[in-house]
Each structure stands twice: as C-alpha cells, then as structure tokens.
C-alpha cells in the first residue's frame, strides 16, 4: 500500500515541480527586463518582460492545476500524517496560500492588463510583487519541508500529535535558509536556460533576431552566475547541513560504505553494489570530501557501516544516483554557460551554431537536475516523514486501498499527459508568435 | 480518491468552455493561450466558491460511488466558469484601458 501512495505522490509532485521551478526564476528575469526598460526607455526590454510574463502565466496556471492533487493527497493518501502534524505544517502551507499565492496571482493579472492604466513605474512594481509572491511561495514550502527534514519548535502531545511550541523557530530553522537559497538559485538556472534557449532558437531560425540576441545574452549572463552560485555557496552550505543533521543520508548519497580511518575520498564515478556493500568501478579522489565538508583533509566522515540498518535511507542506490546526476549536471551547466559567456565576451556567440544548438537542447537538463535535487532531499530523509520522529509507514492513510491508489494514479498519468500536451501547445504558440505579438 | 481526478477533469472542462468563447464572440475573447489561462481560474473560482452547495468533488464521491447528477452539475458549473471568466476578464481589460484613455482626454 505504502509503495503506491509514495509512487503517486512522487509522480504528481514531480510533474507539478516542472512549473514552479520556472516561474520562481523567471520572475526575477522579468523584473530585470522591466527595470532595464525603465532605465533605458528601449522598447525591446518592455516587450521582453511582457513576453516572458506570458510564459510565466502559462506555467503559473499549470502549477495551480497540478497543485490541486497535492492538496487532496494530504487528506486522502496521507491523512494520518496530516492529522498528526497538521497544526505545524498547516501554518506554513496556509501562509503560502494566503500570502504568496494571492500576492502572485493578483499582481500577475495587473501586470498583464494594467500597463496602460498604471504607468511604467507602477507596472514595474507589479512585476516586482509577482517576483516577491513567487519567492515567498518557495520560502513557505521550504519552511514546511525544512521542518520535516529537521524538526524544531514542536511539542508532542500524549495522543501523538505534534503541536507548535515556538512559531518563530519554524522560520529560524537552520535547515531553511540554505535549502531555500539553493532551491531559488536552482530555479534561476532553469529559467536562464529557458531564456537562453528561446534566444538560441530565434537566432537559429533567423526570426526575431533582435530579441534572440537579447534573450541569449541575458540567459547566458544569468546562467553563468546562477550555475556558479548553485555550487558555492548554496550547494556547499546545504551539503554541510546534511552532513551535520542527517549523517546517514550524507554517507549514502556520497556512496561511503566503509568509514575510513583518515580523510574521506570524493567519488566521481561508481555503482553501488548493495550485496557486497561497496562501489563498483569506482573513480575517487582521496581526502577531498573531508576537506569540502570540514575544511580538514584528514577529518573522518562516518560511513554507512557506522549506522544501524533502520537509520539508513531505504533506497540507497536511488539516492546515490539522484545526487550524482544532480552534481554532474550542475558541473556541465557551469562548463556550457562559462563557454557561452566567453564567446559572448568575444562577440562570437551569435554565430557559433554548435553552441547555440547545445544551449537549445540542454533545456530539459536543468529540470532534471532540479527534480533529482528534490529526490535527494526526500530519499535522504527516508524512512521518515518527519526526521527521526515519524516514519513514512505511520503517516499513510490506513483506509485507502492500493487498488484505489493505483487506479487514480493511472488517471493522473492520462490527465497529466493531456495537460502536458496543452502546456507544450500553449508555450509553443507563444514562442512562435514572438515578443511583439499583442493579444489584447 | 477519485474526487481528485474529478477536480482535474472539471478544470479541463473549464478550459474547453473558455476556448469555446472565441467561436461565439471574437470580441470578448483572447487567443488560445489567454482563454486557457482564464478557463482554469474561472473554473476553480466557481467550483471553490459554490461547490460547497453540494456539487464539489468530495460531495460527488460522498457515497463511495460517482453521483452522476452532482457530477453533471459540477461539469456544467465548471464549463460556465471558464466561459464567463474569459468574457469578464476581457471586459475588465477593456475597462482598464478605457479608464486610461479618459484620463488622457477627459472630453472624449
């Protein structure tokens, strides 16, 4: 039963997260375009801001639609979890809906329809408030997840229910800020690639060339900065948090089966062999992991052999691969974006067709990196829903049958395929119409 | 759990309702992109606001089986939500732009 519930949640949330990860980063790029227009009065920046706000609106709408099953699932599949922790996670989730979602959706409508009525400065402000709403939304969701990863400020009643003892602790959670920053910069990476790839597409098609160059340049500049920030300081800070608060998950994601007497090596390539408890075909660099984690080449890091079986994540290979895919892709992004930035500086980028094709076709990969990043967080926390306090098996609804879950999962797959198709048609149509197209 | 599926189907019907507007009146319609977005919000708005009268997905599945009558009402209201949302949003957009024109030239 638990397997199907987890599978359904994993499927629906993975599909859902395709959309918010773009809107959060894109809102910042839209604010940048609008600010550039206010500063320079060059009309193309304003067209660019409005064009990407259309793409933002499509993604935002899809995010709303795919978010609805999440809300239902808390009550259907995970009723026990909601019953036990509702008075804590209900706070942040309600704040997400009441403050950020309404802020984002109200000002999104004003941005799209109110330019003439409000004038340019107020129009910029509405764009900024959309950005603020989307980032606040991320903050509240991350605050919820941070509490599940590292519970703080709670009390457990005799009936097993969790209640909030200290409200401010929820937002001072040491897990929260590093995770939030890492997540937001990761969405900026996705958005940068989307903006750059639309630019590359226009240049390769010799269509909307002026905008193609603007989008490519903006995407590359945002891309190179965010790709570096995703590794340092945000990724580094996040990994140190995992090492400190979830050492068993850290050992599993790094593939450390045996504790070494001195410093730990960093594994670049290798396949977890769960029978012999080792990595096959390993390529590793000695002592580097200890240095990166503790700034000490010889500091010992606990391997999986030092933890009890029930303390270890339930699916070690999935966790290990998800982490290494995320890190590997992050490295590729730095390489590609740095190369593109170099050729942009040398004024050769717009003519370099192989690089333009590469940037265009790399678009799915930041999405994959973002999603595998979330898999690392969620698989690393297993077998718990609330780390060390509530097991996943204890949070599932006892009355929902696996047949019921499987049937609705199949329904979701069919409906989401339809929704995905509609999304591609709408985004494709918007890109095809280009930034100068007017709808009203 | 089927109620979650019904909620999603309901939104699709709202999108269809919104996109039908362009076949009836081009004046009160955006393009496919705008209509679809308006359809989603119109459908959710009406179902969330009035569904508690007895036709929201939870009520439809209350007996454990799909109540076809309530399901039909839900679909109709959702369709209506999408359809009306496009017209209302378009009217709002007209109004906002005409307010600005009046401000620029109060004698027109």
Entry summary:
With 440 residues, chain A is mainly alpha-helical.
How many beta strands in the DSSP annotation of chain A? 6
Kindly state the percentage of residues in helix of chain A.
over 70%
With helices defined by DSSP (H or I, 4 residues minimum), what is the helix count of chain A? 16
Q: Structural class of the secondary structure composition of chain B? A: mainly alpha
Helical element count of chain B?
4
Estimated structural class of chain A: mainly alpha
Mean pLDDT of chain A: 92
Order of H and E elements of chain B? HHHH
Q: Which two chains touch over the largest interface?
A: A-B, 35 and 29 residues
Give the key terms:
heterodimer, A: 440 residues, mainly alpha, two-stranded antiparallel sheet, 6 strands, 72% helix, B: 108 residues, 4 helices, elongated
Structure description:
- The complex is a heterodimer of chains A (440) and B (108).
- With 440 residues, chain A is mainly alpha-helical.
- Chain A has a domain at 174-400.
- Chain A is 72% helix and 6% strand.
- Chain A contains 16 helices and 6 strands.
- In chain A, a hairpin with a 3-residue loop joins strand 5 and strand 6 (390-391).
- The model of chain A has no long low-confidence stretch (mean pLDDT 92).
- Chain B is built from 4 helices and no strands.
- Chains A and B meet through helix 3, helix 4 and helix 16 of A and helix 1, helix 2 and helix 4 of B.
SSE map:
The complex is a heterodimer of chains A (440) and B (108).
Chain A: H1 2-16, H2 20-40, H3 43-75, H4 79-113, H5 115-118, H6 120-149, E1 154-156, E2 162-164, H7 167-171, H8 176-205, H9 209-245, H10 247-254, E3 266-273, E4 278-285, H11 288-294, H12 316-345, H13 353-361, H14 364-381, E5 384-386, E6 390-391, H15 392-395, H16 402-433
Antiparallel strand pairs in A: 1-2, 3-4, 5-6
Helix pairs in contact in A: 1-3, 1-16, 2-3, 2-6, 2-8, 3-4, 3-16, 4-6, 6-8, 8-9, 8-13, 8-14, 9-10, 9-12, 10-12, 10-14, 12-14
Chain B: H1 2-24, H2 32-50, H3 57-60, H4 68-104
Helix pairs in contact in B: 1-2, 1-4, 2-4
């Amino acid at each position: 039963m638990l397997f199907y519930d987890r599978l359904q949640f994993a499927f629906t949330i993975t599909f859902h997260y395709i959309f918010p990860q773009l809107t959060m980063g894109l809102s910042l790029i839209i604010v940048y375009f609008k600010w550039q227009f206010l500063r320079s009065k060059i009309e193309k920046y304003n067209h660019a801001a409005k064009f990407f706000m259309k793409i933002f609106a499509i993604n935002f709408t899809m995010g709303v639609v795919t978010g609805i099953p999440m809300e239902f699932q808390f009550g259907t599949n995970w009723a026990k979890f909601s019953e036990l922790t509702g008075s804590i996670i209900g706070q942040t989730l309600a704040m997400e809906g009441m403050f950020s979602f309404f802020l984002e959706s109200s000002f999104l409508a004003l941005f799209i329809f109110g330019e003439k009525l409000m004038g340019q400065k107020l129009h910029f402000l509405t764009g900024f408030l959309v950005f603020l709403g989307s980032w606040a939304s991320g903050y509240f969701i991350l605050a919820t997840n941070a509490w599940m990863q590292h519970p703080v400020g709670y009390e457990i009643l005799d009936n097993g229910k969790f209640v909030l003892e200290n409200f401010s602790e929820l937002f001072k959670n040491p897990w929260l800020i590093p995770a939030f920053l890492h997540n937001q910069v990761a969405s900026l990476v996705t958005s940068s690639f989307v903006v750059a790839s639309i630019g590359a597409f226009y240049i390769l098609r010799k269509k909307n060339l002026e905008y193609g160059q603007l989008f490519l340049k903006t995407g590359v500049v945002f891309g190179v900065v965010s790709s570096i920030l995703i590794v340092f300081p945000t990724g580094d800070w996040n990994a140190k948090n995992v090492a400190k608060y979830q050492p068993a998950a850290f050992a599993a994601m790094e593939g450390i089966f045996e504790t070494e007497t001195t410093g730990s090596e960093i594994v670049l390539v290798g396949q977890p062999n769960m029978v012999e408890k080792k990595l096959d075909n390993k390529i590793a660099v000695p002592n580097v992991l200890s240095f990166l984690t503790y700034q000490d080449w010889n500091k010992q890091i606990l391997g999986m052999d030092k933890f009890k079986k029930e303390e270890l994540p339930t699916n070690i290979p999935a966790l290990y691969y998800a982490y290494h895919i995320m890190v590997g892709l992050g490295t590729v992004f730095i390489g590609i974006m740095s190369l593109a930035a170099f050729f942009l500086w040398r004024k050769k980028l717009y003519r370099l067709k192989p690089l333009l094709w590469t940037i265009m076709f790399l678009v799915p990969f930041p999405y994959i990196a973002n999603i595998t990043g979330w898999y690392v967080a969620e698989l690393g926390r297993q077998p718990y829903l609330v780390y060390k306090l509530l097991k996943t098996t204890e949070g599932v609804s006892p009355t929902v049958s696996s047949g019921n879950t499987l049937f609705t999962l199949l329904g979701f797959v069919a409906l989401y395929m339809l929704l995905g198709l509609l999304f591609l048609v709408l985004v494709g149509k918007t890109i095809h119409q280009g930034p100068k197209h007017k709808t009203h | 759990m089927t109620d979650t599926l019904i909620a999603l189907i309901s939104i699709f019907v709202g999108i269809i309702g919104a996109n039908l507007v362009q076949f009836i009146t081009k004046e009160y319609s955006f393009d496919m992109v705008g209509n679809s977005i308006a359809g989603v919000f119109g459908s959710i708005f009406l179902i969330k606001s009035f569904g508690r009268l007895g036709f929201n997905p939870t009520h439809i599945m209350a007996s454990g089986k799909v109540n076809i009558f309530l399901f039909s009402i839900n679909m109709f209201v959702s369709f209506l939500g999408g359809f009306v949302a496009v017209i209302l949003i378009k009217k709002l957009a007209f109004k906002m732009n005409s307010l600005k024109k009046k401000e620029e030239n109060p004698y027109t």
